[in-house]
Amino acid sequence: MHYNRINNLLGWACFAIAATTYILTLEPSVSFWDCGEFISCAFRLQVSHQPGYPLFAMIGKAFSLLSMGNNAKVPYFTNMASALASAATVMFLFWTITALARKLLVKRGEIPTGNNQLLVMCAGVVGALAFTFTDTFWYSAVETIVFAQAALCVSVVFWAILKWEARADEPGADRYLVLIAYVMGLSIGIHLLNLLTIPALTMVYYFRRSSQTSIKGTLIALFTGVALLALVQFGIIQYTVKIAAYFDLFFVNSLRMGFGSGVFVFLITLISLLVTGLFYSIRKNKPALNLALVCLTFIYLGYGSFAMIPIRAHAGTNLNNSHPDNAFKLQSYLNREQYIAPPLVYGPYFDSQAIEQKEGATIYRKGKTQYEVVGKKQSLVYDRNTILPRIYSSNDNDPQFYKQWLRLGEGQSPNFSDNLKFMFSWQLYQMYFRYFLWNFVGRYNDQDGQASTADLDGNWTSGWFDGKHLPKSITQNVTYTPLYALPLIIGLFGMFYHFKRSKNDASVIALLYFFMGIAIVLYVNQPSIQPRERDYSYVGSFYAFAIWIGLGVIGIVQFLKQKINVRYATLAATGICLLAAPVLMATQEWSAHDRSTKTTAHDMASNYLNSCAPNAILFTYGDNDTYSLWYAQEVEGIRPDVRLVNLSLFGTDWYIRQMKKQMNKSAPLPITMNNDKFKDGVRDYLTFQDAKIPDSVELKEIFDFITSDDSAAKLQYENGTTSNYLPTKNFKLSINADEVIKSATVPAGQRNQIASAMEWKFPGNFLTKDHLAMIDILVHNHWKRPVYFTNSAPDESILGLRPYLYNEGFAYRLLPLKRDTATEQYKDKTNTMVMYNNVMNKFKWGNMKHARYLDQQSTALFYPFIATTFMNLSQNLVNEGRPELAVKALHKYDQVMPDLYPYMNVAARKFYIADTACYLKDFKLANKILTSVDSYIKDILDYNYHQLKQDADTVNLHDVQMGVSLLNEMAMLGNKHKQLAVNNRLQKHLTEYQNKFAALMQQ
After folding, report:
1. Distances from the Cα of 327 to the Cαs of 123, 254, 304, 316, in angstroms?
2. Of the candidates 982, 936, 984, 986, which has an alpha carbon nearest to the alpha carbon of residue 959?
């Protein structure tokens, strides 16, 4: 059969295998993190978070139509879009590997035949299928996330440059370069990852067009590639919009024309210049200029998908992040200006002191008839700086993390050596190479492992040397995926062989690997612990390494053919590599990626919403208690009466304005401030200046004071500016009991429990817009709408209201009840009967009991949260004299929850559940739980005792001390309740481990 036909058929076969794999393991509904927002924005073509993903949303919208009106199936089909895009990536990877393999085995223009043809195809199959089953790529392939389609763009442009290279001397070959430019433009509307291929593509062009390469020429080509990357990233993506914004500023403010008129003129001018340039290049016969202008035009054509952003922002969609309805707001949106950019080349240490503040460019906002000046961008000048700053952040807990990681003494200032140590040990090793090793060496589990290079959680393992002594909680978990380093070995063999046979091509792959991995690490400059593991960011570098896995087959054949017949060598090498890479990886990784039976994110979102009374206001904070809830409301229409307020966004003027409007079936929030009170640049930051007021101050008075435009209510600074301020932290909200009872916030029978006033202390040192808007709501709501908070928000973000929050399931309701200061420090307060009804009758549990796989958020975040929910509910039912309901709650927990131990603290929660079961005389359930906890603790302590004998520094002291302490508590419980069948075993284990860890227990 002809080479091209075989090549095409096997490429499509790889697509079919990958597509089948991903569809079979597809998440059936919404996933955690950004997926809920992406599905919502695709379904209704709304505006997602910066820098926006309009083409991704439009593709998602097209796939959502396959649901045929069944909105609950929308995420399945948007997830399928990722699956098919990922399968197509595998297909183009196959063709990329075969193109490179062909260059190794035959001369340009020749067609591989016989054994060479077989070897080329085998290399492509092994490399493409190995990438199919890599941990990171597979994870993104089965959910609605941008990285699947971003990887497809990477694979298409790299395949296209190799197609161009093979046909560069033929007429019309440059059409592949135009295709690359167009895909580059399109990819901007998906993710910017594809731009990082530009330096590698430039090197391919240079090596092909140069009759004789040199070090000087190679360096010039490399820097040209980096310059082209910068041109697209800054010149096209950012400065096009920036110039358009200043055109609009001139036309609106100077010529008194309408908003957008300047943008329209700029676009006409840009199009005219491109058309004129194209006609000039044709008329003057300048092919190089023509090609450059055609490519530029197609980049802009692809980039045109971003027109959707201001169009949909003008439409006033429910999800309208930043509301980028004008050129200046769109520029800020694209530049992600809400995120503080880290210093890259020169900047401070984390303990440097600011000595000066510099003004930068003018900031504009859209006014009623023209653009208004907000102020100037501000930047700080520090007393101590360094090149390549890595330990620069003084925010939150970052300095403490630096000190712990670098083992700096108290008061010790870091130096440049510490700076480099952090870059290599944490940023490069912990936050990149650890991920690389997950994919090609193996992994202990999928728990977060950012904070330690020694712990098992989130670490890499080959599986060769430590499997015998690992705890069963690791080895019997589906996320334990040792690959015995075999894919890594094959890839390294391929890399060395590639460099030996073709330094130019190998250098291109190395450059692709570098820019898709290490360069991202250096550019992003992560300050410290991230909200989640970031391996998905580096999937392009894993793609590049998979090319070498494919070429490793050829390298092994070249080695074997010195010993055996070349055809047998080919078959043997292919068989070995197929088993050692894709087959092994598929076998090990399948159970860790089969999400087909999991609905945790969907059901937890539903539970949050169904915890709320009708017409409630629910304040959320993090991604996983917001995005999936957006999905539930926007796509499936679950509880559209509940108004979701994300506190992380509530500090912006555009979001507060959105909250003042009707959304779905939710009425506007009771925010009384007119928009000028909180517009951009107004009341952004109100400092606390103690006015020495002796008593708590009514919240209404505080609100009126901090929103007053009277100069008497403001502080005047040395530069002449004035600003409102917070005069006291002691807040009071007087309660009208009739209002509370009328709104059914508290039943009439509990009237005597209603406080005359809620009094509390604000925990922060300044107010921001989110505080301002929340105070406005509290003052003017008059208990007409129930107010809830999720448990993720810090005290400062919720004004310090936690003493008045009562758990009703998954959300905490604000209730004006008298405080019990004696117990509120350790007792999680519940509105018990409402909570009981929600937990027992309304909630769903994500099929957690029977799902074949549960992701890290399900096991490490929501599973402990659910266990705590049942623990508190049952205990409070007992305390309120409802033991029969407490028994039912405990049996519900046993019925719906699997027996998991993501970390030791979960064992403690289960112990308390068992303790309640003992109190209720349900010894069967108590024995079951205690037996499980005992087995887990014994397993962990046995492992740590083995580590103690090998290397005491590797012992997890927290787990040892807590484990022994729990054994002691359980033994005491057993002695108290003689009916416990596990009593003797608990006492035996307690004695055993007290002796083994006697020295550690003293620390």
Report:
1. 49, 16, 14, 16
2. 936
Instruction: Give all strands (DSSP E) within 433-591, no chain letters.
Output: 442-443, 481-482
Biggest distance spanned by C-alpha atoms of the chain: 99
- 337's tokens: 């200006």
Would you give the distance in Å from CA 400 to the centre of its chain?
A: 23
Q: How high is the pLDDT of residue 729?
A: 94
CA pair distance 99, 509, nearest whole angstrom: 13
Q: Is-contact 493 440, C-beta < 8 A?
A: no
DSSP H helix total and E strand total for the chain: 40, 18
Q: What are the DSSP calls for 415-462, one per residue?
A: -HHHHHHHIIIIIIIIIIIHHHHHHHTEES-SS--TT-SSSSTT-B--
Answer positive or negative: Cα dihedral of 702, 706, 707, 711.
positive
Cβ-based burial of 465 (10 A; exposed 0-12, middle 13-18, buried ≥19): exposed
SS3 737: helix
Which residue stretches of 322-397 are H helix?
Answer: 327-334
Distance of CA 274 to the CA centre of its chain: 39
Torsion angles phi and psi, residue 373, rounded to 5? -85, 125
Give CA separation, 439 vs 473, 484, 553, 622, 914, in Å.
21, 11, 19, 28, 40
In SS3 terms, 56-118 reads as HHHHHHHHHHHHCCCHHHHHHHHHHHHHHHHHHHHHHHHHHHHHHHHHHHCCCCCCCCHHHHH
Helices (H), 133-239: 135-141, 146-167, 175-188, 198-209, 215-230
CB 641 within 8 A of CB 610: no
pLDDT value at 826 more than 70: no
Confidence of residue 159 (pLDDT cuts 50, 70, 90): very high
Measured over the CA atoms of residue 636, residue 638, residue 641 and residue 644, the dihedral's sign is: negative
Q: Tell me the C-alpha distance between 788 and 618, whole Å.
A: 5
DSSP per residue over 117-130, as a string?
HHHHHHHHHHHHHH
Helix ranges (DSSP H) in 880-922: 883-896, 904-919
**Count of CB atoms situated within 10 Å of the CB of 728:** 21
Pairing of strands 787-789, 617-620: parallel
**Residues found in the chain:** 1003
SS3 content of the chain, % helix, strand, coil (to 5): 60, 10, 30
Give the model's pLDDT for residue 668: 97
The answer to whether residues 526 and 534 touch, using CB atoms and an 8 Å cutoff, is yes
Where does the pLDDT of residue 477 fall: very low under 50, low under 70, confident under 90, or very high at 90 and above? very high
633 token code pair: 């409301």
Mean pLDDT of the chain: 94
Is pLDDT larger for residue 794 or for residue 21? 21
DSSP state of 801: -
The DSSP code for 536 is G
The answer for residues whose C-beta is within 8 angstroms of residue 941's C-beta and 6 or more apart is 959, 960, 963, 964, 993, 996, 997
Q: Are 144 and 39 in contact (CB under 8 A)?
A: yes
- Give the tokens for residue 71: 């909105």
Report if pTM > 0.85.
Answer: yes
User: pLDDT tens across 733-772, in order?
Assistant: 999 999 999 999 999 989 999 999 999 999 989 999 999 9
- How many CB atoms are located within 10 Å of the residue 222 CB? 17
Burial class (CB in 10 A: 0-12, 13-18, 19+), 586: middle
The answer to whether 581 touches 486, Cβ cutoff 8 Å, is yes
Separation of alpha carbons 405 and 426, rounded Å: 8
Helix (H/G/I), strand (E/B), else coil: 526: coil
